[in-house]
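quick one before i forget lol
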Amino acid sequence: MDAQAWSQFLNGAIALGFLVSGLFFFRFWSRTKDRLFVIFGLAFWVMTFERVLLLVVSPANEFRPYVYLVRLFAFLLIIIAIIDKNRGAK
């Protein structure tokens, strides 16, 4: 296998891992109804979407760096969830 095929394979595996992680967080949310879990689940599904976009967009495309803004949005969701959880504890 060449480097491009390995990269696509690993991106697909990472996307699947993010998808499954999101499902776990949604399962925990359905048990506890805690907003932290639903926001984490959404963040992991956004990261899944970002990995799929990286697979679809060719490396030569100048749009590719903007795909990382999707990842930034996912990390901001995680930060918001943590802040929300800590503010609710008071």
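fyi The two ends are 54 Å apart (CA to CA).
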